[in-house]
Amino acid sequence: MSHTKIGLGLAALGRPDYINIRLEQDVDKSIDGFKTNAFKVLDDSYALGIRDFDVAPSYGLGEQFLFEWNNSRDHSDVNLSTKFGYTYVANWEIGFNGKHEIKEHSIDKLNEQWEVSKALLPNLKIYQIHSATIDSAVLTNDAVLSRLNELKQKHGLKIGISSSGTEQVKIIEEAQKVVFNDRALFDSYQVTFNLFEQSTFHILKQLLVSGKTIIIKEALANGRVFRNSKFQEYEAAYKYLEKLSKKYSVGVDAIALRFIMDYLEPTLILSGASNTNQVKQNLKALNFELNNDEISKLKSFVVFPENYWHERSSLKWN
Ligand SMILES: NC(=O)c1ccc[n+]([C@@H]2O[C@H](COP(=O)([O-])OP(=O)(O)OC[C@H]3O[C@@H](n4cnc5c(N)ncnc54)[C@H](OP(=O)(O)O)[C@@H]3O)[C@@H](O)[C@H]2O)c1
């Protein structure tokens, strides 16, 4: 039986526009509306047994919401994670036309964002480089790496990276090489893995064996696992997911999550739910197991990483 837990990511809860493939029509996009919803989803998730919550400074007011929630609820058993490296610049402008977040993996950005994020201590357990890339050279930036090591020693944090794009395996390999006093700097890897993007399977299995924390993001391929006429190439996958969804009396989301739990067995999978109903449906993944034939069949729906990430980059923020 898989020991994978389900956590909650705040990417869809802290800012009015994100990659929302299925448009829910009646969402209140005011700051107050988002805050009320975020607190409700956080409280409901906690009541339903979720203890792991992931955020980033670029998730609009997500970090602020999590900070206020964490302070006011005072739960001693939650594990929070955040990141540094991206800044939210859309200023809560609905339909903002342009890049919503700006990447900067510099020591100045790390120090600036840490000053804010440290308010999540002591429940802050994992501190990550947000979307580490080869081209930003963050994995060879001595000032940044030394500072992360300092924070690790001082606060007992796990240090992690998150990765995206066609070079995920290469990025993880580079991260593994970062060592201080014969000890690897990185304890945690947050990686995109799902039915369609499985390129990191072998390296993640090795990392799990060596005791690293593996956190899966975009487990529902940003919502692309749900039947959608825009993505005709997934028709065979949709048919099979719906067949299993009937068999196990759960939604397609729970099947897609369970596939990751039974095949990869990561430490944690982040739900990207935008409301409590989605959290409840996602959590149904904990109540059944897929058999080997079903896992094999689901594995077969993988697509080339280049195609996957090309499509990912064309998804609209709304
Ligand atoms: N670079 C990084 O470090 C990075 C990047 C991405 C994500 N993350 C982390 O990973 C978390 C999860 O990723 P994600 O939110 O991008 O991707 P995801 O889990 O693949 O997709 C989430 C979307 O799936 C839809 N959904 C979920 N449950 C559903 C249900 N039961 N029925 C119908 N639709 C459902 C929702 O879409 P609608 O809102 O349209 O309904 C939701 O926004 C984030 O919150 C964040 O913490 C990190």
Give an account of the 3D structure.
The protein is an alpha/beta fold. The chain has a single domain (5-313), classed as NADP-dependent oxidoreductase domain (TIM Barrel, Alpha-Beta Barrel). The protein contains 11 helices and 12 strands. It has helices at 31-47, 62-73, 107-117, 142-155, 168-176, 201-209, 235-248, 252-263, 276-283, 292-299, 305-313, and strands at 5-9, 52-54, 79-84, 86-88, 101-103, 124-129, 158-163, 179-180, 183-184, 188-192, 213-217, 268-271. The strands form 3 sheets. An 8-stranded parallel β-barrel has the order 1-2-3-6-7-10-11-12, surrounded by 6 helices. Strands 4-5 form a two-stranded antiparallel ribbon. A two-stranded antiparallel ribbon has the order 8-9. Helix 2 links the parallel strand 2 and strand 3 (79-84). Helix 1 (31-47) crosses helix 2. The longest helix has 17 residues, at 31-47. The termini are far apart. NADP nicotinamide-adenine-dinucleotide phosphate is lined by residues 9-12, 20-22, 24, 54, 130-131, 162, 164, 190, 217-223, 226, 251, 253, 270, 272-274, 278, 281-282.
